[in-house]
Write a structure and sequence with these properties.
This protein has 116 residues and is an alpha+beta fold. The chain has a single domain, classed as 2-Layer Sandwich (Alpha-Beta Plaits), CATH 3.30.70. The protein is built from 3 helices and 4 strands; from the N terminus they run βαββααβ. The protein is globular.
Length: 116
């Protein structure tokens, strides 16, 4: 299992509630379409301050794409970033949602400890 993890911030002026609603009701459908058949999981983890005295998170969402192996991930990511139609659909919708200047994407090598 290999993961691509993105850290994304909502565009300026957009409320957190509107951000989550738009992402879940619209942008996630695009994500499902473009990674479907390659990724095994597509998760959005919305971030909130832990308590009232804590600062707001730097990012609004952690996006995870799980792939069975690095080859499958590389093939799909090459298509997502190289196919003109896929790029246009993804980027035009991202402009409705994200501060694109702050978007980052990482490959994750995950290790877990079993605690129970």
């Amino acid at each position: 299992m290999i993961k691509a993890v993105g850290l994304f911030k909502r565009k300026p002026g957009m409320s957190k509630e509107d951000f989550v609603s738009y992402y879940e009701d619209h942008h996630a459908r695009i994500g499902e379409k473009i990674v479907g058949g390659a990724a095994t999981h597509y998760l959005r983890r919305y971030l909130y301050a832990f308590g009232p005295d804590e600062p707001e998170p730097v990012y609004d969402v952690i996006m995870e794409l799980w792939f069975p192996d690095i080859e499958t991930m590389n093939e799909r990511m090459a298509w997502i970033t190289g196919d003109p139609d896929a790029v246009e659909e993804r980027e035009s919708d991202e402009a409705n949602l994200f501060d694109r200047s702050t978007m980052v994407l990482y490959v994750v090598d995950e290790h877990a400890s079993e605690l129970g």
